[in-house]
Amino acid sequence: MQQRCAHRTSQAARPLLLPLLPHKPAALARSRHLTCRIQAAAAAVSYSDMNGSSSASWQANKAHEVAPLPAPPKSGQSLADVLPYLLKLALSEKQLKWRLGAAFACMLASKAAGLSGPLFLKAAVDTLSAGGAAVLLPAVQCVLCFGLCGVVQHLTKELTYPTFTPISQAVARRVAYQTFSHVLELDITFHMNRRTGRLSRILERGTRSIQMLYRAVLFTFAPTFIELVFVVGLLASRFSPMVALLVGGTFVLYVAWTIAMTQAAVEVRKQVNQLDNLTTSKAVDALLNAETVALFNNRQLEVNQYDHYLRGYQAAAIQTERLSALLNAGQSVILSAGLTCVMVAAVIGGQGAEAMAAAKATGSSMMASAASAMMGGGSGAAAAGAAGAAAAGAAGAAAAAPASFAGALASPGDLVLLQGLLLQLWGPLQFLGWFYREIRQSLVDMEEFFDILKTKNSLPDGTTPLPDVPPSLADKLAAATAAVSNGHNGSSAAAAAAAAAISGSAVSSTDKQSLVEAALLLDQQQHPQHQRLQQQQHHNLGSADPEYGFYSAAADPTLSISGLGLEVELDDVVFGYHPERQVLKGVSFKVKPGESVAVVGPSGSGKSTILKLATRLYDAGSGIVKVNGVDVRDLQTASLRSSVAVVPQDTVLFNDTILQNIRYGKPNASDEEVIAASRMAHLHEAVLRMPDGYSTMVGERGLKLSGGEKQRVAIARAFLRAPRLLICDEATSALDTATEASILGSLNELARGRTSIFVAHRLSTVAGCDRILVLSEGRLVEQGSHAQLIASGGVYKDMWMRQAAEGSSSNNVAEASSDEEADGEPLEPLPAALARGRKE
Ligand SMILES: Nc1ncnc2c1ncn2[C@@H]1O[C@H](COP(=O)(O)OP(=O)(O)OP(=O)(O)O)[C@@H](O)[C@H]1O
Predict the structure, then answer these.
(1) Tell me: the pLDDT tens digits for 31-85?
(2) pTM beyond 0.90
(3) Fewer beta carbons below 10 Å: N end or C end of the chain?
(4) Could you give the ipTM of this predicted complex?
(5) So what CATH class is 79-454?
(6) In this protein, which residues make up the domain named ABC transmembrane type-1 (predicted)?
(7) Is domain 563-643+725-840 annotated with CATH 3.40.50.720?
């Protein structure tokens, strides 16, 4: 039985997929051609991967395991606000402990080596100053140690950040991943009100800032502070408390100046950011609309507008530069003045000459002297030019010192030591200023970033999964199942019951539906394979037919009427995009499962808005929108949307290949499925005519495709998706009438057994729908079948007659309608009538 069922499906699918089978030479050649195209497409897939356009993630359409972000701080204005957040971010990284420990060990080793170097150098200088042949070896030893310290200092310094980088990169990826996911999850109103370029700049600056803060705080501020404490201590013990006090004072003054100036620059930075956002969004806007710009010959207009923002940006950036120059100048003056004072104090208040003399007298090895110096076991004084005057000045002072200050100085080595230590501080201090400014800027950047993270979806997700059938149908289904199972035994009997029910004129369409459902339930109980296929289609998970890969309900008449359709109901819905303007003013209707409904009416009457409410892009202001009997606000949006396919009014494509763009309807679809869908959408031949076939890149937003081709890509996506609710918003408006007629045929096939809602201006394209809703100024003014509406002679009939009169191709249809009006016979469902009318 199972086999028979599978065979039936495969047989049913055969006509549909026949063109894919290589059973003729021509077909063989074609299939080879197709294979080439697919290979080319595969190449494009890797291209897409490289470009980050996600085919890999398309294959695995499920969330990656990325830890959620902690709640962003209430305010991101100060380090005190942001640091705990950064800490929480880092703490959830697995390797944090050992990496942080290793990075700190490297950093401390680097600092220790950096501070030891001057001590060895001092020892070498003092040794050499003693004179004589015996000092040569110890002096060389000291110099070698000095060199070794330099090597260790730089090697460990270079190891520090790379050791921590995997953590900061992992955090940055997590932040970027979760923020991107958060932004895509936000409601459509958020995206409507944002400018894309601006948003992407904020996200980019935010993630960059997080990395900057780690680097600055962990590897610049903390080590510099430790170093400062150590150096001040060393200076106090070796020279005098005054020297240490002066170094500390210089540092405090330096930091105070940096903070004050940076604070002043914050406002300017905010301005620069704003102008940067505006400039980028202006550029992105113009580039996205390059064709419109060219056609309207508005290049200069765009460039001028861009320049308007650029000029603002330029002015703000110049102000930032001025502030930066002032900051740097002040920092240099403070350091130079401070360090000169330190040197003078060291020279004047030099101490420890005796100790050094004693050290020399004992003739102890210079290594011992260096070691004692490192331990702070002696003190000395030296003089040098301010470190800001650079090493040359210091060296000159060192040379002059023994003569000029022989009485006050302990040794020339002390002078070298002092200068070495001060230079050791000088470098990080310079960076400290730069990093502080960066931190301030990062905090400004992160404020906007946190604002986005804190933005809540104004349409919070519901918790109820989409039920399989609406409650009313479920009841009828149960009754019908019982009836059918009492009367018959076995799936063929169930199918017979369904067939009888369908053909029975006395049975209402909903009851027919119920009986078919009942029959199918019985069938499923006995055909697990059948059930699996149906589930696959339900959840859009995979291909049902191993032979062809592509599954279509249209290929299997039993499945296509399997009641997969959703029930959509609007109950007294009032809605406006802005509170002061209502677009829908109390609209109520119900679309039954499996029913095809058209929404027609003048432009701006709210047709597309209804579709947006049904797919929960917006929530109704008042009234309820229900799908399968559940308020959409309670439904899990994912379960709703995974059951819906929308062919939108304006198809915007991803800048990727045609293959990938179609595959977007079902990310895990095989190439064969994609191509089968493309055939159903009458796109295949057009694609084959393109030089790169399915691997043709469609350009930004699909600009390289014609309007009709874009629409057919969207239709192919819908075929691939095989949805329970098909929504077509002017789906064929960009197509020529012949293509439109054949696509409508395919769409009708697709719509069988599913619920479908069509919005159309050309009434002839939807006259075959089960029901037509006529909307006018946000109100439902008429509804019924085409025949009923024509017969009632209302708004719809006026629209129909007007359209019939307008187009020569519609004349036949108009005649048909008057004939039908005259004799009361129902019209032949379109597009069959449409196609016939056009032929005639
Ligand atoms: N995102 C939006 N923000 C503000 N107003 C909107 C938005 N989308 C649509 N509108 C307005 O709502 C009204 C109804 O729009 P809707 O798109 O539903 O009309 P429609 O009947 O589908 O029109 P058409 O046939 O021209 O597509 C229009 O006046 C439109 O300007």
Answers:
(1) 344 444 434 433 333 334 433 333 444 444 556 677 778 888 777 667 777 888 8
(2) no
(3) C
(4) 0.97
(5) mainly alpha
(6) 102-441
(7) no
